[in-house]
Give the backbone structure.
Amino acid sequence: MYESYWQLSQKPFENDLDYNFCYPSQTYQSALLKMLYVIEQSQGAGLLVGGVGCGKSYLISQLANEMPPGFGPLIHLVFPQMSAEELLGYLAVEMGVNPKNIQGNSGRLDVILRELETHLQQYVIGGQRPVIVVDEAHTIAEAEVLQALQLLMNFQQDPQKKFSLILAGERSLLAPVQRLSQLDERISIRCALNPMSREETQGYINHRLQVAGREKEIFTEDAHTSIFELSGGIPRRINRLCDLSLLVGYAENLTKLSATEIEAVSDELLTTAAE
């Protein structure tokens, strides 16, 4: 709606997975490199934590895009709120196991694990190393589910059954993992996606505007300060504030967006959320 008014080729603050808009903040690049290291060096398991809207799902998607040849497939489990056998059964089917081979064996983790073991070996023989990502892992309520993943990781000790496991979630994931000492010891790399700094927030905004075709600045210096303070440096919040501010500027025929517009948009978002 506002793209032509601001001389943009597309909307710059969408919460989608367009890698052209990826901004290499220090925390993001560090986390991406560490997770790639887990995969490329077969380092067992990686643990990625971060608050809501900090970019965990974006990073996981970029991992899939940047995996070197010979690694994959990437199996991305987004809703891990399952029983142990359901979760391993899902992974087994995604890895190519015939569902008929595990149907009728409800609760038989040994049957599912044997099927997984066979298919892991087939992948390695074929020159591939699967990558399993359990997203939203902080929502796993039962310790038995994490214990099932720990059993799966036992296969990693065999060179013919190599794969990588990444657990991603909010910081509350740390406590249940630490309570399972055997699982905790298998995690070789841990990293956190932290909010961006004031400077990174401004760089993030300018980068997205430039990718979308804008050559001149839109947000004033005090607007950048307000965006950082109101968003806490969290990308999803930044996107929401900037997107609605561009719409307001278009509606009011403005040439620049100041802290006044940013704060008004933020107040409106808070009022709407309260209702």
Remarks:
- The two ends are 26 Å apart (CA to CA).
- The domain at 196-274 is CATH 1.10.8 (Helicase, Ruva Protein; domain 3).
- The mean pLDDT is 91.
